[in-house]
Specification:
- By secondary structure, the protein is an alpha+beta fold.
- The protein has helices at 24-27, 46-59, 68-82, 123-126, 149-153, 155-160, 201-210, 259-272, and strands spanning 4-7, 10-13, 31-39, 42-43, 88-94, 109-115, 129-134, 165-168, 173-174, 181-186, 189-193, 215-219, 221-222, 231-236, 240-247, 250-251.
- The strands form three sheets. Strands 7, 8, 10, 11, 12, 14, 15 and 16 form an eight-stranded mixed beta sheet that branches.
- The radius of gyration is 19 Å and the shape is globular.
């Protein structure tokens, strides 16, 4: 964690920041967040992230205590103060204090943490990764909530299976990964789940880039479709586009990073640097 953070209107040293023990974000996971990546001092797609943060807050019945402009300025000040031009920012809004552990009594708590950039090994992008599946469907899928309990609970199993991510497959359908969106290719047709997912910022950008050259199908995706898929990948702010070459014990396509995925990886990185 980097040195400085934001808490309820002030930029302070991270070591001095604290939340009340009866905060609903701590007690009940009642809160929302967003995650933004910077490259060379510039936040990628920052307007989209800020809009989503405010949208998540509204859907969750929470009030963001600062304006969008103030949030942008605070993020800019923090990245300069932390002296890491490639840092990642986590913006969090909690339900605030509760006297009985369930009812919201007062104002929300808002804080921003900055994480050092910790790049994945190069082979993640050049050789692809494995996903493991669990039959799970997130609640409140269109809101970026604080509740990631299933993903945390399954970390030990994920490590045991040497999986890069967890893929949620409720009722035999693919929805999303625990911290990413999922895509597969049928030849030159790009397929991605439409329902039961968080519509990620990176996902949206990838779809915008892909529509220029490819047919796109946003629809229900059965897990059995992996058998005939020619390529697959996941997308996320902190991951960009990561090729998927294996799901559980099933090899995707020829088990290598495909040309269509590689093309989108190149296009996305160029767009993220604009």
């Amino acid at each position: 964690m980097l040195t400085y953070c934001y808490l309820n209107g002030a930029i302070i040293p991270f070591k001095n920041a604290s939340l009340p023990l009866n905060d609903l974000g701590v007690l009940r996971g009642y809160g929302i967040f967003d995650y933004i990546r910077a490259r060379n001092g510039k936040f990628c797609f920052i307007d989209r992230h800020i809009d989503r943060f405010f949208g998540s807050a509204k859907k969750m019945g929470l009030q963001v205590p600062i304006t969008k402009e103030k949030l942008f300025n605070t993020l800019t000040e923090l990245i300069q103060k932390n002296k890491d031009p490639n840092a990642h920012a986590r913006i969090v809004l909690t339900g605030g204090e509760s006297s009985n552990g369930i009812s919201k009594d007062g104002e929300e708590n808002m804080y921003i943490l900055f994480h050092e950039d910790d790049p994945f090994p190069g082979e993640v992008y050049t050789e692809g990764v494995k996903l493991m599946t669990i039959p799970y469907q997130r609640d409140l899928v269109d809101i970026k909530t604080l509740n990631y309990a299933p993903a945390v609970k399954n970390q030990a199993q994920q490590k045991k299976e040497e999986a890069f991510e967890i893929l949620y497959t409720p009722d035999g359908c693919i929805t999303e990964a625990s911290r990413a969106n999922f895509f597969l290719w049928n030849g030159d047709v790009l397929v991605t789940p439409k329902e039961g997912i968080l519509h990620g910022i990176t996902r949206d950008v990838v779809l915008e880039l892909a529509q220029k050259d490819y047919k796109i199908e946003e629809r229900e995706v059965k897990i059995g479709e992996l058998e005939s898929a020619t390529e697959a990948f996941i997308t996320a702010t902190g991951k960009d586009i990561v090729p998927v070459v294996k799901v559980d014990n099933m090899v995707v396509g020829d088990g290598k990073v495909g040309r269509n995925t590689q093309k989108l990886m190149d296009l996305y990185l160029a767009a993220a640097k604009e």
